[in-house]
Amino acid sequence: MTNKDETAQAEQVTMAYAIGSQIAKTKAGGWGCAVLHPSFCQLTVMEENGRSDATTAPRENLWAALGALEMTPKEIPLVVYMCDHNTINACNGGIPKLKANGWRNSGNKRPLNQDILERIEAAMKGRKVQFKSFKKGCGGMGERHARRLAAMAIEGQLVSSIQIGEDA
After folding, report:
1. What predicted TM-score, i.e. pTM, was given to this entire model?
2. Where in this chain does the record put each RNase H type-1 domain (predicted)?
């Protein structure tokens, strides 16, 4: 365990694993988010997912990021782990740059998925949140939960804020 991990545990930081997915053949997509919150030597896990019939993987990743933000109280520090670097970059500084530029990208065009980007920006306002990457397959329990939820969503099996643990 690194010093950063120990510090995160000492501060009771909530961790979320957020994953979006899309099936190229059918265009159906889904996202899953598993929020892990340590409280009094036990772990509370909240899960949520969503589905779209015609979508893209980047859009589903943005929905997953928004899900993590909307599932957690603003006053609790949050670290969101994702595999998608474009979403991480957008959430860690890209959104304010787009907004400052009148919601125009370097090609002077409106960004794709601006609707979700605006919602993410609003959900991040006034809170301590970081987006970090992890290598696919190395995210442990949180990643497994989020991937399972995204796959379930694509199949039409939706869940909303299921809590697993002694606090449930």
Report:
1. 0.82
2. 10-155
